[in-house]
Amino acid sequence: MRSEGVKGLYRGASSSFIGMAFESSLIFGIYSQAKQLLQGETESIKPQLQVIIPSAAFGGALISFILCPAELVKCRMQVQGRDSANSNYVRYAGPLDCALNTMKSEGLKVYFVVALQLC
C-alpha cells in the first residue's frame, strides 16, 4: 500500500476473475460429462453418491494439470516485486516470459510435479 497504493493492491484482479470463470466452466463441464458417462442414460432425480464422488474427483484431478502450472506462474510473478534492485527473484517481462523461463531452467516436469503434489 505504501509504495503502490490501492491500485497496486488490485493490480491483476481482472485476469483472476476471467481465469476463475474459465476454471469454473471447465470443471463443471468435465464433472457433467463424467457424471453422464457413469450414470448412463437413466436420469435419476435423486443424486447418487457412487456417481457424484468419482465424477467430482476426476474433474478435480484433471483441472489440477491446468490450474497448478498457472498458479506457479502467478506466484512467481507476484514475488518478483516492483523494484528489481531490492528483489532476489528473477524479473519477468510477463506471464508468458515467466512460463517459458521456468520451462527452460527447470524443465516441463516442474509443472507436472506441482500438479501431482496437489492431487
UniProtKB/TrEMBL annotation:
GO biological process: mitochondrial L-ornithine transmembrane transport
Keyword Transport: yes
Domain of life: Eukaryota
Transmembrane segments: 12-31, 51-73
Pfam family, one: Mito_carr
Molecular function GO terms recorded: L-ornithine transmembrane transporter activity
Subcellular location as annotated: Mitochondrion membrane
Keywords: Membrane, Mitochondrion, Repeat, Transmembrane, Transmembrane helix, Transport
Gene3D superfamilies assigned to the protein according to its UniProt record, in alphabetical order: Mitochondrial carrier domain
UniProt topology in membrane: Multi-pass membrane protein
Keyword Translocase attributed: no
Main localization, broad class: mitochondrion
Renumbered ranges of Solcar repeats: 1-37, 47-119
One annotated Gene Ontology cellular component of this protein: mitochondrial membrane
Family as reported in the entry's similarity comment: Belongs to the mitochondrial carrier (TC 2.A.29) family.
Protein name: Mitochondrial arginine transporter BAC1
